[in-house]
Predict the 3D structure of the following.
Amino acid sequence: MEDFEVIEGNVTSPKGFLASGVFAGIKKAKKDFAIIYSEKKAKAAAAFTTNKVKAAPVILDMEKIKSGEAQAIVVNSGNANACTGQKGYEDACSMAFMAAEKLNIDKDDVLVCSTGVIGVTLPMDKIAKGIELAVQNLSRDGGKEAAEAILTTDTFTKEIAVKFNIKGVEVKIGGIAKGSGMISPNMATMLSFITTDADISKSALNKALKDTVKRSYNMISVDGDMSTNDTVIMLANGVAGNPTIDEGTKEYQVFYNALLYVNKHLAKQIAKDGEGATKFMEVSVVNAPTEDDAILASKAIVNSNLVKTAIFGEDANWGRIIAAVGYSGANFSQDAVDIYLKSNKGIIKVCENGGYVPFSEDKAKEILSEKEISIVVDLNAGKYDALAWGCDFSYDYVKINGSYRT
């Protein structure tokens, strides 16, 4: 039984947070500018793309987050502000400065994010308009609009909130995310913003975010491409009034479990919304010698284009799965590997002791005909497990990305 409850909501569910999402004209018609604002300065933690090519807002935020504090997150979609040189960095700084002026807070407490097309400078007149409109529209119900405004090729918003108790005090965590293509995060094009009204120490917040990112966003793949803009930011404003949560306590574990659920939910929503995807894929690697081995193997499978296309074609091509495990870098013995395919239609073993086992192709195809597929790989070599999530590769993925800029 979980020690938290899932509730309807998002980043404005925790106390003391406002948000908005507006149309500034960066995109042709849809909302494209969002602000998430804490009425009280919050403790802040973040994780960023490890791509050597980093967008201007990532470079700026990596410096700002060192203070461990922030009060607002300003986001535009439709333009990544990546590979834009000194001008791009100055524009990111200007975004923070203009938002700080309108919000009447310090510019160092404003974090900036951008998502969209790479290599195009920001239309600063539209950014200024977006900031003005977004500040005017800040509200306690604005989380949904913010979730809409950060989308690019996404087909639906990603939102969640949970509540739980810390020594008798109700605490909430809420989140929104975007991501559909260029998804293979290795953070420390996806964005995730998490808010909480919990009072938690800076070190505990940093540890909780870092560890949950490893087990959530870093375990998804749509196409194996790592964005220049991947960012996860978490704000904790302490408004709930609970006793401060510190590492190594029972209360920390409750907080961690709730945060892990939030981040896994958002990560899986991103995987389900993969560009052109027709199927959601969960990869479970069990009984590995170490956790790292399980992670390596599961991520290799979920990243494999050949596995993805086989899932799209509903082809039980288990050879592609074991091949991915083989090049993953994980430590295992081929002769011990068993592979299963599973869905609501049942489960079937397609590989035993690293080789062929008779199975019904018709039953396998029936299992793979479902929208949600599970691949289970048993390494029979230890006690560690890992989960990764992704989607299939369809013809539509090529169509979408063949004309992304137009």
About this structure: The mean pLDDT is 93.
